[in-house]
Amino acid sequence: MDKNISANSYPNSWLHRFAVITAVATFLLLGAGGLVTSHEAGMSVPDWPNSYGYNMFLFPPSKWIGGIFYEHTHRLWASVVGLMTTVLAFWLCLKDSRRWMKWLGIAAFLGVVAQGVLGGLRVTLSMDSLGIFHGIVAQSFFALICAIALLTSRFWFRLSASQSPVLVPRGLRSHVLYVTVLIFLQLALGATMRHQHAGLSISDFPLAHGQIWPDTSPASIARYNAERMDVVNQNPITAFQVVLQMIHRLGALLIFLGVAAAAGLSIKRLGIKDYLTKFAFFWLGLILIQVALGIETIWSNKAADIATAHVLVGALSLVTGSLWCIIALARKAPVSATDSSAVFNPQPSLAGAK
Amino acid sequence: MLFLAAGLAASTGSRAADITGVISFKGTPPPEKEIVPLENDPTCGALHTEKPFTHFYAVGPNGELADVIVSLNVTGKSTGAAAAPAILDQKGCLYVPTILAVQTGQKIIVKNSDPCIHNVHTVSKNGNDPHNDAQMAGGPDLNYTFDKPEDFMKFQCDVHPWMFAWVTIEDSPYFAVSGKDGTFTIKDVPPGKYTVTASHRKLGTETLDVEVKDADVKIDFPAFEVK
User: Fold this and answer.
1) Alpha-carbon span B158 to A126, nearest angstrom
2) Which of A348, B63, B80, B146 would disulfide-bridge B128, Cβ 3.0–4.6 Å?
3) What's the pTM?
4) Cα dihedral sign for A120, A121, A122, A123?
5) Which residues of chain B make contact with A41, given a CB cutoff of 8 A?
6) DSSP run (H or E) holding A151
7) Measured over all CA atoms, what is the biggest interatomic distance in chain A, rounded to whole angstroms?
8) Domains and CATH numbers, chain B
9) Which pLDDT tens digit goes with each residue over A94-131?
10) How far off is chain B from A231, nearest CA to CA, in Å?
11) Which residues in B lie closer than 8 A to residue A47 (C-beta atoms)?
12) What is the pLDDT of residues A154-169, one digit of tens each?
C-alpha cells in the first residue's frame, strides 16, 4: 500500500520508542491541562510567556500556590512536550524515508507550536472561547502523536509489507470511522461545556433537574441558578448549557451503542481471535469506563480528579478509534509481493541496523 | 421677608428626596456551604479561626435580605469621576465585600491584605475591558474604573477559585445596597417618576414604579423567594 516504504524507513526502533514516549508525555500533558480547567485555574497566572513577571523557567516554586501550581506545571510540561515534538519532527524529517511521514512530523511540530500560542493567547486575551479550541487541538494533537507512534512501529511495517489473512470490510471500517468522528464531536462538546466555566448545568443523573428532559424556561433556569450553591466560582448556567449537557448525554449513549456494534461486527466479520476484534473490545471497555466516569463527574459535583479522568479516557477513546481505522485501512490493501520484498525485510538482523 | 418666602418656596419645589425601604426574603434559603478548599489551603486556612461558609443568601432572623442592589432607571447621570473610590479587599482569601455597587467612571481600589499572591480577574458580560492582574502579598493596590453599566460583573481570583466578588456598575448615583437589616436608602433623588429595581445575584429582580415629589418616599418590594 505504501510505495514510499523502504529499508531506510525501518527498523528504527529508537525513533519509534521516542514517538511512544512523546505520546505518553502528551497524554500526561492532557491530564495536566485537564486539571487546570477542572480546578478553574486557567487564568491564575495572568501573564504569558512569563509567570508573574518571572521567566517561566525561573518562577520560584514557593509561589506555585493554589491554582498557580496547576497552570504553571502545565506550562512547564507543555514546554517539555514542545521540545520532544520538535525533536520527533526533526528525526522524522532526517531519518524516515516516507515523504508523508516527514509531513506528519512537520504537522506535529506546527500543531504543538499552534497549541502553545493558543494556550498563551487564551490567557493574554482572556478569551474562554480560545480555551475550547485549546482543548480540541489538544485531543487532535494527541491522536496525531499516537498515529506517528503507530506508523513508526515494527507492527506497522509488518502490516504494510504482508498480505493480511482477513481484510476488513468497508462497512465495518466506515462504521468505526463514523463512531470515531462522533467521539471527536463528543470531545469537542465536552470541551465547550468545560470552558463555559459554569460547573454542572445539570447536577443530577439519570434524571435531569428531576425530569427526563429538563425544563429550560427562563423561570426554571432562574430557579436552578438560585438553588446552586457552588463553593468554587461558577458562571450562572443558561438554557443553552443545559441543552448542551443533554446532547452530551445522548451522544454518550450513541457512542456506546456504536462501539458495542463495532465490537459485535468485528467478531462477526473478523473472528474473535483477530487483534482488531480484541482492539474493538478494548475500545468498548474504555467507553464503559468513560460512561462511568461521566456519571461520577455528575454525582461528585464535578470533582476535579474525576472530571480530568473523564477527559483522559475520552482522549484514549478517540485514539483507539483512530488507530483502529488506520490499521483497518492498511489491511484493506496490502502491498504487492514485489513491493513487499523491496520495502521491508522482517529479518531480525535489520532490526538493529539503525 | 418676601424674598425669603420666595426662596423657600423655590427650594421646596425642587427639593431632592430619599427613597427608602426594606428588602426581605420569604421562606427558607438554601443552606450555605462550607468552603472546604479554603480550609484545606495551608496559607488561606491558617487565616481563619472559624469555618468559612459561602454567603449567597445574607438573610437576617426576620427575613431581612442584604446584598440587594436597588437602583433607579436613570442613565447618563454618573458622577463617578468625582465620587470617593470604592474599596474591595482580599482578606482571609475572600473578597470583602462580595457585593458592591459603583458608578461608571468611579475608581475601585482593590487591596490585598493577605500574605499570599492573588490575581484580580474581572469577567465582563457587557463590554467592559477585562482585566487579569497579579497582586503579590504586600503589593500595591490595584485601581480599576469601568465605563459601561453592568449588573454583577465578576471579580475572581483564579489562584483561589472560591474567591469572588460581584460588582454592579450604575450610570448614575441613584442606587444603594441593602444592609444586614435589609434597609436601603437612595439619597437625593430629584422629583420625577422612576422605576426602581431591586436585584439579587441569585434571586433575580423585582421592580416598582415610584413618583418622587417633595418628600421622602418609602417603598416596599414584595419579598424575594426561591421560586
Assistant:
1) 12
2) B146
3) 0.85
4) positive
5) 158-159, 161
6) helix A128-151
7) 74
8) 16-74+174-227 (2.60.40.1120), 77-173 (2.60.40.420)
9) 999 999 999 999 999 999 999 999 999 999 998 888 99
10) 6
11) 134
12) 999 888 877 777 789 9
